Amino acid sequence: xxxxEQSPQNLTAQEGExxxxxxxxxxxxxxxxxxxxxxxxxxxxxxxxxxxxxxHGRLIATINIQEKHSSLHITASHPRDSAVYICARADGxxxxxxxHLIIQP
Amino acid sequence: DADVTQTPRNRITKTGKRIMLECSQTKGHDRMYWYRxxxxxxxxxxxxxxxxxxxxxxxxxxxxxxxxxAQAKFSLSLESAIPNQTALYFCATSPIWGDTQYxxxxxxxxxx
Lengths: 105, 112
Fold this sequence. Notes:
The complex is a heterodimer. Chain A is mainly beta. In chain A, strand 6 and strand 7 form a beta hairpin. Chain A is about 0% helix and about 55% strand. In chain B, strand 9 and strand 10 (about 100-105) form a beta hairpin. In chain B, about 0% of the residues lie in helices and about 60% in strands. Chain B is mostly beta strands. In chain B, strands 2, 4, 5, 6, 9, 10 and 11 form a seven-stranded mixed beta sheet that branches. In chain B, strands 1-3-8-7 form a four-stranded antiparallel beta sheet, with no helix packed on it. At the A-B interface, strand 5 of A face strand 4, strand 5, strand 9 and strand 10 of B.
């Protein structure tokens, strides 16, 4: 079964903290997708990555294809980062259940 | 204007009714997807289409059907709605396999 597992399911942190969200998958893939869903419901793409690391602003995503593991990091977290973060197989067939992140001021 | 639109945005219906959710895109993408999202379960794939003539079942296709009327339009139907189909439904598109997906705003469906 093609499973995608995320941890933690819920995370509450203080503003300014360094945040890490993990994603592991059971079947080999060539790329992984990180998405963000704000409380209003809209889903936006953050990163699509197949190797190494990508950075966009305070967000950094890494992937190790051989170890079937990816991480999303947020530096200097801010309350506006509060959202659900979702990892997914790049083919769109399987998604993790999401990590609900709350950043408190 | 949004690249991926869904209609309606909200719908309340009764058990046994036939419901159609529509998705339109202006991105020119061949690949389109329908998902449902339930609390604690995340996004699950209902159907996906690689082009107008290619439609595939996803993880949870029972109770649903789809129609790809054109490259830009992909409709999801619930032939006889039941309460456990109450969920948030998303349409998405992508240009090629493994490329970034673009999501519509979602349709909140309630079946009483």
